[in-house]
Amino acid sequence: MRDTVSMRGVLMARRRGRMHRIHAAVIRFLPVAAAGIALLPVAAPAQVPPTGAEVATYRGLHAAAHRGDAVEIARLVAAGARVDDREGRGRSPLHIATFAGRQDAIRVLARAGADLGLLERDRYDALTIAAVANDEETLRLLLSLGASARLVTSRYDGTALIAAAHLGHAGVVRQLIAAGAPLDHVNNLHWTAVIEAIVLGDGGRRHQETLAALIAAGANLQLADRQGNTPLTLARSRRYREMERICSRKRARGHRHRTVAWSSRITPGAGRPLFR
Questions:
Q1: Rounded Cα–Cα distance for residues 257 and 57 (Å)
Q2: How many CB atoms lie within 10 A of CB 16?
Q3: Distance CA 185, CA 27 (A)
């Protein structure tokens, strides 16, 4: 029997303000026959909020956005300040306001024409920043202002939905699904939102709810990782029994539906199916 090497992801802090968990490293394993030898972990860039030292250097719109000073933002924009101006890490005032959860500032910046889909240096947009922070109110605001849930973001070529699924932010996941986020997008780790909820999750209630929401919305459970492991296989290998049950229940329903569809094509008295 051939041994296979399972992939494991490392969850590290995604921080917003004080402390939000961020993608800091992802362990990538390549399949190696029989021996089951894994490669060393490869660090990957992460979503990083402004540090105190960076905030201390902010002037103009960036400083006002961090404080949430909507009046000052409006004054600066009227005086000719560039609404999408960037600081050292490529963050616009909108990024800064989103990291800080300053909703009034976000509204004023959006009305002034801020690009809601602008990516900072590590390729995160405001919507993904709010999704990672589990800031459902700011996420709801951004979506109402026209931010897209369909953007490809981060150096993982992922989406806000994948990032939220990774962290088990079930409420955020539901909002993004309702906003049309692509359920089956595959990032450059060859993982979907469903797969990330399993391999980067802890198998607990938050990730179970996330997985259930994705499946209820129609996520494809046949999409596998690079080693050919389906979500069911990945849940089973980690002994995440409830996740395994959720995946198995969906598969069983799909099988029943296919059986009914097949049976409905049998011509009465003919004794064989008619295929289209």
A1: 60
A2: 22
A3: 20
